[in-house]
Design goal:
Blueprint: H1 2-31, E1 67-68, E2 76-78, E3 84-89, E4 96-103, E5 111-119, E6 123-128, E7 141-148, E8 159-167, H2 172-179, H3 184-193, H4 197-205, H5 211-229, H6 234-253
Parallel strand pairs: 2-8
Antiparallel strand pairs: 1-3, 3-6, 4-5, 4-7, 7-8
Helix pairs in contact: 3-4, 4-5, 5-6
Amino acid sequence: MKRRFQLLNHCLENHRLTIGVVSLFLGMTTVALADYKPPSEPSHPEQPTIISGTRGGCSKNGQANLTTLAPQEHIGKTVSTHPTFAWFVPDAEALPMKFQLYQDDVNEHPQPIQNIELQTTPGIMTHSLSEDELGLSVGQRYLWQVVIICEPNHPSSAIIAQAYIDIVQKSPDLKIALAAATNPVDRADIYAERGFWYNAFGEVVACGDDARHRELKLNLLTDLAKIEASGNSHYASQKSERIKQILEIERKARL
């Protein structure tokens, strides 16, 4: 009888240990998210990108600004010729908006590529180039901007935010890594570790709003805020503060 009790107790202890190990493993898998690492040799804008408008957007009642969700201190990269662009809108009211895309020009005369009319929705908005459209060219740099038309009869009241994007070739190493990825989160991790901001963030915002994707989205924005804060320019510091405001709003919205 004593022997049977010892065996039963031993089995129970092993069972508790197994549950503990499995729980620890599952907990680790939900938080093991890659950090965004800027390119080893980042490119920098030759001139500061535009940041206009007062806090709160057109209504001036919000807690944040119209903000492109992309690097400011360095130029974000993508290996996609049909990338996804993301930005944050502070206004609760639906307002006319434009998404504008230009090919950068060495003579400082950007060539217009796309001009899309949209309606604002509060929070994070996105725009992806359709696969049916002619894609962007590898090796080229583009300027993109979003414009909120606060008062149609007063163009000077428009709020503008913009950023640059570089289109680069997909390396053999990246192709191999992506071939082994089984879901958007894995692909986002791979892109983030290799410095492809637009691909990493695009994967996350395109695949739903469940807990894991929200966690990765906030993680990437936190990384971006830290990187911008480490920059030497006033514009980068300003961008960092804007992203921190957005992070606070996004976290409160999930409570």
